[in-house]
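Dear colleagues,

I hope this message finds you well. In preparation for our joint manuscript, I am sending the AAA family ATPase (Limosilactobacillus reuteri) sequence together with its predicted structure, so that both groups work from identical material. I would be grateful if you could confirm receipt.
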Amino acid sequence: MAEIEIVGSIQRIRFAANDSLFKIATMRVSEVREGNIVKNSFGDVVFKGEMSLIPQNEYIIRGEFINDEKYGPQYQYISSKRRDPIEGMSREDFRQFLTDISPKGVLVNAQFDDPRPIFQEHRVKELMAIKGIGPVSADKLINAYEEQKDYSEAYVAFGKWGFNPNMTRKLVRHVHSVEGAIELLNKDPYEFMDVPGVGFKTIDEKALNFGIQSNDPRRVHAFVKDYFDKLAMDGSSWTKEIDLMKYLRQEVFDCDVEETLQWINDSDEFVAYEVDYVRRVATKRLYNTEKSIAKNLLRLLHSENKFEYKERDKIIDRIQEEQGWKYSDEQTEAINMMLDKNVSMLQGLAGTGKSTALNAVIKVLQENDYQVATCALSGKAADNLTQLTGKRGQTIHRLLGIGDPFGGFEHEENPLPVDVVILDEVSMVNDSLFEALVNALGDGTKFIMVGDIAQLDSIGVGVMRDIISSKIVPTVSLTKIHRQAQDSAIITHSLQYRMGKMPEVSPKDSWTMLGNKNDLGYVFEDSAEEEKLNTDAYRIFAQALNKYDVSNIQILTQTVSGCTRINDLAQTIANPKSPTKNQYKVKANSADAYILREGDKVLNTSNNYRATAAENHQMYRPIFNGNTGIIESIDLEFNSKGGISHVEAIIDFDGVGKVFLRDKELETIQLGYAMTVHKSQGSTIPCVIVVLPFHYMLNNRELLYTALTRASELCFLLTSTKSLKSTVKKTGETVHRSNLGLLLKREELIAPKNVE
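The corresponding structure tokens are as follows:
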């Protein structure tokens, strides 16, 4: 097929996709540099493909001829570059370019005499400082500038490696320069594995196909980095040097282990050290994070304690009288510890009274005029704090004041203006977020941690286990199930499961409620017919909607694919199609397509730091993986052919507020009637439906315990006898290697102590 190269500009855009740069456009041709132009029957030169050409601007455009059976002669877009390259534009021409692309460009010109450096260096914060330009506008301006760069050399260089134009542009933007990206590609393509959404696997596949040897030092070094990334995701921050070397010999053919070990020892990215005559290796980032946590916890622990409580005993006596029962000796010990110690940890199984003990502490603090802030990782957990304690809970991110994705947290260098911070569900919190929280606590701030170590572990390197095992931080572990909890089958059965025991339950108990509170129901299916469990969940969900609002019902299962099937069923009854409700088909052209509809319960599946507030699009309101909410509105814009060209949605997220999302941002929003047990951690929901088919890898007693204890009022467990017994037999507990306990002990030896 013949290629052409023309100089021209867009005459008319016939079609523009809303979720990509794909366009079909007729071109105004001013010069033919290569090949012969073929026009269609209307005399038009038609191009199609992913292109970002600004009307009224001339480009040098390459295309490949296609004689389409339906639409006639046209050209497949290959590449383009501005006839007047944006990289070499004069100040005056660049100012005119900004005026052409957007009215916001006029605001930029009014603020800066020469705006070129602002765009060349991606100084987004300076754009956002201009009145009238918020995060969305700033992103659009930067993207418009980036799309006008001459990518032709990059397309050729990266194309040889198998990168498509979209990925090429993404990698070039990471480096901020076509020349720099090409240079980095040739020097070490594995440097691109740090680009969000790329990773080692993507780069490695292309590098090996391009001819890089499996034992090339660049690949081996990247392999080591990926190994530590996976190690951290599994909850460990270090490995034995000997284990790492053994792994490399097994996984990388003819690996130069000695060279790799020398590189690790010389690298700024790793730290090698000895503990009990064993050489350990950790990433410097994680090691420093854990060291920072240790120092901050000890700083808080040994600060001067100025807390005084008037009528403390009277307040606690009044609470006991109001609730109609007295605190156990364990709870009394926990209450005293939390009130008296600067830093403390309260941990215990479900039903041991952690929340009621914490409630007493909060009331004593508040009645003595101390400012208390309560927080948790998830929005739902933060809302639970509000319901349990009467004190408004926040997510950790919101408490720390994350206002934009560039400057971190507002309170990183600016201590929180409160006397006490209470962190619930501490077992869920990973090291990096925990570090940010303790960094934000000023000297003298009381820090109370509450959690359940029997739940599933956090995703990433956690902190709770090491804090407890170090025995540096004062800790009380509640072990006795309080009287009210003993009446709950949710509590008693979940605790038996967690200990690897089977309660007295069998298929004859199907479709009946157990316990003095009638709060736990079982549905058993034959192990060969577990596909019926989804239909059973549908039936129970439909009945639960008669008593509970949809936001107070949660279906839980082990896998994402299982959630997808159940979500489709749940949507048909909870929020069926209606002429009064707008809806949007996400990933419409793929096999993974699904419908989002106004009124749907949804789950966010990826961190989005650039999401904005619904009431003010100039203000960031980030959302995080695991946030749940309800779709309040969906607004659609259509093109001339009736296709959707643009979509906007407002979602009210639990513990976050109303958030504005648009176009591709909605691809991280999934239906949330059903979610995985891992995603539900930290939440307490009135009504929970647990669907537990057989799964060899995921089913274990920790998962079952976590799932059942999400329910505060009613729980239904749908399974087979075989699956339930195999789940209870298996434990998912693994050995997590963390430095935090070691560093707490070491830092304690040298930490300055306050002499009372």
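For the figure legend, we might mention the following. The CA atoms of residues 13 and 25 lie 4 Å apart. Residues 284-301 form the longest helix (18 residues).

With kind regards,
E.M.
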